[in-house]
Design goal:
The chain has 14 helices and no strands. It is mostly helical and 218 residues long. Helix 1 packs across helix 13, helix 4 packs across helix 6 and helix 11 crosses helix 13.
């Protein structure tokens, strides 16, 4: 019979195991286009705004055709601002439009538009990947964590990826909060990116966390 941890993990995956990339319409794969789109989403999610707003802004940028570094760079600054505004990303629209343009230029110049080259340059080392990701404008350690939490869906080298948000969610649903045990649960689930996303979602919603724990009985 499954133990309590296993029951919680199962409930997390079934109720909340949806990638933020999926919400943004990104068909995540280990290819330049989807990885760049995830980078854009991580940049938008880094701002202190609701995740739903960041996701909506990402969808507007992609709907406008800005799905590659080249397209993002070639778009006019005002066009990027307008797309962000359509997603109600208004408080940070002008600064973010600039950062997205500069980030696209950096990716094209240094890694030829392909984040796999960034990963390979770091030899798959998580600390090395993180350090390089934080070179992108607007993408600090928090944003790098957002990217890597979802990228572990297609980058086995970074599995299991556990950061403070994942740990916070674990505490909320009474899973072990130490990194080693939590990493083991992510790996054992077979869906580490989805479990990480579910833990982030419950970390952001006390109600979802309480409803989930109430539904799981010892």
């Amino acid at each position: 019979m499954p133990g309590r941890n296993e029951l919680i993990v199962s409930a997390l995956l079934s109720r909340h195991g949806r990638l933020y990339a999926e919400d943004a319409g990104i068909k995540l794969a280990d290819r330049p286009g989807p990885l760049y789109q995830l980078l854009v989403l991580a940049t938008l999610l880094s701002a202190p705004i609701p995740a739903e707003t960041a996701v909506a802004a990402a969808r507007e940028l992609f709907a406008a055709g800005y799905r590659t570094p080249k397209a993002m760079s070639e778009a006019g600054w005002q066009d990027r601002v307008d797309a962000l505004d359509r997603g109600h990303y208004r408080r940070y629209d002008e600064r973010t439009a600039t950062m997205l343009g500069d980030g696209a230029d950096l990716l094209s110049a240094r890694w030829h538009g392909d984040l796999r080259k960034l990963r390979d340059e770091a030899a798959g080392d998580v600390a090395g990947i993180t350090s390089r990701l934080t070179e992108f404008p607007g993408l600090g350690p928090v944003g790098a964590g957002i990217f890597l939490r979802e990228a572990q869906e297609v980058w086995p080298d970074v599995v299991p990826y556990v950061d403070a948000k994942v740990t916070s969610g674990a505490h909320r649903v009474r899973l072990p909060g130490d990194r080693e045990t939590l990493a083991g649960l992510l790996e054992a689930s077979g869906q580490p990116a989805r479990l990480a996303a579910a833990l982030v979602r419950v970390s952001l919603s006390p109600r979802a966390a309480s409803e989930l724990t109430a539904s799981v009985r010892d």
